Amino acid sequence: MQVRHLSVVVVNQRSEIGRLSEAVDRFGEEHHLSADDIAAVNLALDEIVINIIAHGYDDEREHQIHVSLALEGEILTIQVEDDGKPFDPLEAPPPNLDLPIEDRPIGGLGIYIVRSTVNEIEHRREGGRNILTMQKTMAGRAGQ
Questions:
Q1: Which of 8, 77, 112, 120 could be stapled to 70 by a disulfide with Cβ–Cβ 3.0 to 4.6 Å?
Q2: Model confidence over 32-41: pLDDT tens digits?
Q3: By residue range, what is the domain housing residue 95?
Q4: Residue 64: helix, strand or coil by DSSP?
């Protein structure tokens, strides 16, 4: 079975999110992924990469964030790698959705959204880098 790849390097600037999203859109269209699956992948990546940009660095230097997609059959593996501060988003407590919105603490909703978007997610710290790997089963691929 052929594995299809996409590799994108973005820098830690919010303006890069649009370029990443466009690359994911093209990858999805080229490989006949559903619009819903493409939107879910973009949502997860937006949450993860914006969090890295907003909270991952203590300096003003430019940092590279590596994003890769690998599609094998109906399984899409998404990997995000950064050299930011050590942070395992899986350790974040789930938000209390039973509280009225005005009583909820800020933060924590993004990783909740990501977890609800993908089937599997894992984090590891290796060589001074955060490596977040997610897997998502694609709902259906046209022409497959």
A1: 77
A2: 999 999 999 9
A3: 3-137
A4: strand
